[in-house]
Structure formats: C-alpha cells, structure tokens
Amino acid sequence: MSILHLVNKSPYERPSLETCLAYYQAGDAILLIEDGVYAAVNGGRAASGLQGLDVAVLGPDLAARGIRQEKLIDGVKVVDYGGFVDLAVAKDKIQSWL
Amino acid sequence: MSQTKKFLYVNRKAPYGTIYAWESLEVVLIGAAFEQDVSLAFIDDGVYQLVKGQDTSGIGMKNFSPTYAALGDYEVRKIYVEKESLEARGLSLDDLQHLVYEDEEEDWAEKDSIMLVSRAEMAEVMAEQDVLFNF
Q1: What is the rounded distance in angstroms from the CA atom of residue A8 to the CA atom of residue A37?
Q2: Is the dihedral of CA A7, A13, A19, A25 positive or negative?
Q3: Which among A95, B34, B120, B122 has the fewest CB atoms less than 10 Å away?
Q4: Could you tell me the residue range of the domain that residue B83 belongs to?
Q5: Contact B14 A44 (CB under 8 A)
Q6: Is residue B1 one of the residues assigned to a domain?
Q7: Closest residue in chain B to residue A9, using alpha carbons only
Q8: Strand runs (DSSP E) across chain B, as ranges?
Q9: Number of independent structural domains in chain B
Q10: Would you say residue A98 has pLDDT above 90?
Q11: d(C-alpha B81, C-alpha B112), whole Å
Q12: Is A93 an 8 Å CB contact of chain B?
C-alpha cells in the first residue's frame, strides 16, 4: 500500500520531514509543498536525506520563493498542480505531515 | 520629547507559509515612520525572505519581496543576515536581493544595507539594542 507523503513545513523550522523520512518505504513518494520545498535545495543540510528517494516539488511554491530549478538536488521532479493530482491518484493514500 | 531607541526586528520565518514575514515588514515600516533607529536581523528560515527572484503568480498571494528594496528610503540601513543560517540552507549572499541606501553625507552615494555577520556577531547586535521584536 503505497503512500504519497506531503510535507509543507521547512525542515529547518520543524522536524516534519525528518519524521516523514523515518516512515518512508519503497514504492512511496514525497511531495514537498509550501515551505517544505526548501528541503530540496542543493547544499542545504536537509537535502542529503532525500537522495535516492522518489521526491517531487510543487513548482508554483518554488517560484514564489525565488528558488530556481537548477538550485535543486538531482533527481527531484518539479510538478504543477495537475502533477500533484496525478501523484495523489498514483498512490494508495496520502499522509500529510503537518 | 523625542527619544530615539534602537529597535531590532528579528525575522525567523520563511515568507509565504505563514504571515509572520509580511507582518514584520509592515511593523518595520511603521517603526521607521516614527523615526526610531531601526535594524533588521534575518536568522534561521528568515533568510529566505530576502531571496531574489520571488514570483508568487502561481500561488495566489501577494509578492511582498520588492518592498525590502524600499527600506533604504525609510532610513532602514542596517540589515543583518546571519552567515550560518544561509550556509545551512545552501544559500549565499549572491542568492539574496541587493539592498542599498543613499548616504546623504557622501553625496548620496549608494551603499549596501545588508551586512553578513556570524552568529556570535549577531548576538552582539542583539545585545546593543533597546527593544527586540521577534517574528
């Protein structure tokens, strides 16, 4: 039973992502939205924990925060709102890490 | 009966996930209008507020980041950004807006408002204030 994990908090303000990663299993995916997108910035302390996982970032939230795609770690997908829906449909359930 | 106090606004939140950053900026502008000695500090996620190139057209929120460039006109000239907070987030000064003010004592020459300081130096900046406001 695959899970889409939603993380909307900055990894530097709250441990939501850290907790999420402890529960991530093969077949799951993580979508970073709102302040959660900061986790995918290359060179940041939080980015190393995402290596090798299925991670997507919501593009409009990146743009709002002035983060260009080339600033992200390799392997991260940037999706729009339609892509958000596609991910939600592709997984069996959603876990929101507030 | 005009006593100027040193006000430091300490910003610790990212700009759009919560309303803190915007509220701080509004209070800063009010404080500056009352001719207080205003400084701003950006630590932890607060450093994200100054990242250049913000485009909120896709999230239905006002992009208030251009307002930081107006701070110089309100005589807000001391903007302290903490080095450790930038580095932990994979950022450097090059990722931030270039904020300046005009120095009337040097023929209105443009000077940098942003000062990159270490955590220890930031502690000293806090120590010398009369009032601290945290956002």
Answers
A1: 7
A2: positive
A3: B120
A4: 6-134
A5: no
A6: no
A7: B17
A8: 6-11, 37-42, 78-82, 100-103, 109-112, 114-117, 131-134
A9: 1
A10: no
A11: 12
A12: no
Nearest CA in chain B to A72: B90
Residues in chain B: 135
User: Is the Cβ pair B17, A59 closer than 8 Å?
Assistant: no
**ipTM computed for the complex:** 0.70
Look at residue B51 and tell me if it is in a domain. yes
Please report whether residue B46 resides in a domain. yes
- From first to last of its 135 residues, chain B has per-residue pLDDT tens of 468 889 999 999 999 999 999 999 999 998 888 888 999 999 999 999 999 999 999 999 999 999 999 999 999 999 999 999 999 999 999 999 999 999 999 999 999 999 999 999 998 999 899 988 989
| Residue found by looking up tokens 């205003």 in the block | B38
Residue A13, classified by CB atoms within 10 Å of its CB into exposed (0-12), middle (13-18) or buried (19+), is middle
Domain A3-97, second-level architecture: 3-Layer(aba) Sandwich (3.40)
* Domains of chain A, residue spans: 3-97
Both structure tokens of A2: 């695959």
Q: What is the rounded CA–CA span in Å between residue B6 and residue B132?
A: 9
Query: Judging by DSSP bridges, how do beta strands A93-97 and A3-7 pair with one another?
Result: parallel
φ, ψ of residue A47 to 5 degrees: the values are -65, -35
Sheet with A55-58, strands from edge to edge, namely A77-79, A55-58, A29-32, A3-7, A93-97
